[in-house]
Amino acid sequence: MSRTSVRSNRSSRSVRRSGLPTVERIMQNVPYPTGKRLSVPEIYDKRAKPIPDVVRDHFLREGRLEESAAIQILKDASDLLSSESTLVDVEAPVTVCGDVHGQFFDLVKLFDVGGPPSNTRYLFLGDYVDRGYFSIECVLYLYALKLNFPTTFFLLRGNHECRHLTEYFTFKLECKVKYSQKVYDVCMRSFDTLPLGALVNRQFLCVHGGLSPEIQRLDDLKRIDRFCEPPNSGPMCDTIWSDPCSDFGEERDGDYFQVNEARGCAYFFSYAACCAFLRNNNLLSIIRAHEAQDAGYKMFKKNDSTGFPSLISLFSCPNYCDVYNNKAAILIYDNNVMNIRQFNCQPHPYWLPNFMDVFTWSLPFIGEKVTEMLISILNICTEAELRKAAPPTDGAEGVSRKEVLRNKVRAVGKMARVYKVLREESESLLVLKGLTPNGMLPLGVLSTGTEGLQTGL
Prior knowledge:
The protein is of the alpha/beta class. The chain has helices at about 10-20, 40-45, 50-60, 65-80, 105-115, 135-150, 165-170, 170-180, 180-190, 220, 235-240, 270-280, 360-380, 385-390, 395-425, 425-435, 450-455; strands at about 35-40, 65, 85-90, 95, 120-125, 155, 195-200, 205, 245, 255-260, 265-270, 285-290, 295-300, 310-315, 330-335, 335-345. The chain has 17 helices and 16 strands.
């Protein structure tokens, strides 16, 4: 398996310092991942529905499903989601949730905070995959819940539920590591069926991203043909990609929309555009996700005509990417009262970057040590000792032999620098590889050291 059983680099360093044998399990309080893959009969009940608790508990033990079982859940969910409107109607009370981004163990915590899905109405605003290393677990578990509670559990599409981003980030690779290309393809087809928006209590428009200049009325959103890969422009793109202006509510010009250069597509929408849309559609506020928030949520400037926040952003994955140290939040709307509940991140198993196996991860360390050995061998004798021991060489042949030796020393030294950069800058190298069109490092970047790597980034 490519997964490492060590939970943190800190624990592995302590192992080396303590001199413990490497064959023993260091984190004794962490159970071994289960190697069993559950089949269709093991996860489906007599009603031909997946059993959410069985799926959840198995995933918490880091288990997987048989490919046929995973595909069955994905296809069943696709059939159900295809029957829903592009703009679904959701009644209160409801708990609204933002981005999840593959943080399965935090998703389980979310349901502890928000209440069991069996008696709680939920609306998720998209971005279930990428960034985190448990995206397929999030998708399968959420789909299992949707199949069991089709009228009280709602899922919208985010900008990451597409082929373009899942290939660029980690979800496609995760599917191939844990399952297969086939599972990924079926999952992508299921994403094409996800609704784009929800109308909550006929008061709140809920979408993943934001507004579009091509959507003035709710009927404009309903008319979008959503059963496709999101295009790079147009109302569908805008709905899942747009953001509020950075100076939302303090704009100095009267523009409703500006090109969203930060995202590379869609728009920034202004406070004026937001208020106009709410007024034209007799709505109270827009609830969206799509942006990380330190507190897990953000209330934007109030609408002058209602005194209610014109826009609300939610973000439901705590300690985003394991580095942001942010809180997560969900919104509970009941009896015309809106409450925000925050929660912190949960411990989770550790994966090496990009699902790398331990052998590949260790190659830079091994390479650096091998080159150090070569340099040590070359340095056994001083230059004076070599001149004394070597037979006299005169003329062109002697010069040529000396140049060959110098080139060998230079090659070993260059190799040593390359492996040192690989070891010390492994994270930056992964980022740089992800930024290049072909996934390869620029020629010669390793030999230039850390400074050259930063220039490449």
